[in-house]
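Protocol check, entry for the methods section draft. Step 1: assemble the input record (protein sequence plus ligand SMILES). Step 2: submit for complex structure prediction. Step 3: store the structure tokens unaltered in the notebook. Ligand used here: flavin mononucleotide. Step 1 record:
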Amino acid sequence: MTTELKVEAEFSKVIRERHSVRKYDPSWKISDEEIKAILDDAILAPSSSNLQPWRFIVITDPALKEQLLPIANNQQQVVDASATIAVIGDIEAYRNAEKIWEYAEAAGYVTAEVGAAMAKRSRDGYSSMPVQKLKEIALVDGGLVSMQLMLAAKAKGYDTVPMGGFHPDKFRELFSIPERYETVMLIALGKAAAEGRSTARLPLEEVVQWNGFEG
Ligand SMILES: Cc1cc2nc3c(=O)[nH]c(=O)nc-3n(C[C@H](O)[C@H](O)[C@H](O)COP(=O)(O)O)c2cc1C
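Step 3, stored output:
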């Protein structure tokens, strides 16, 4: 269908034109509504058992950005970008299992009976997992939502850079983040003042093996 081809072409453009941007127009303000629209797209990402462990801290306050700057290794984009979004992951996301399935029931996707059974299965299964496993899940799901956030932003004409270069303990302290949450990454979001540089990728043959793996 023509419409499908059009959507595919646009997606192709978005993923090819996304580059990590580190120079932002400090005078550009992205409205709260636009940021919410980007996050609304991002949270459509898949997650383990749909438990959606991601949580976001949207940092737009200039004074708070200044406090974040040294914690983020003085990466200037933290201050210059319109917002820095911290993605954190709830390692006890299974506590929301009932709520999530109630939303599904309210939307007419499942019966109350099926929803309750699915919620119980998730809660029982995840609450008995080792903490390390729950952290890994929060990080994987957090990575997926982060990628989707960056592409959603690009599709709306904005740029981003994901940042792992920050001190998680100091970040945790600044926002009084309980142990229950893992820090995933920071994402600067704003209007580019200079294009991100193009980066090379390993050729497909070097990263793909078919039907087996030889290292
Ligand atoms: C998990 C993660 C952490 C990163 N941390 C930083 C960072 O702290 N500072 C930075 O400038 N770029 C950071 N980057 C951006 C990478 O350098 C960049 O994605 C990579 O060079 C590929 O370039 P591209 O994003 O323009 O395609 C990070 C990327 C990822 C995925």
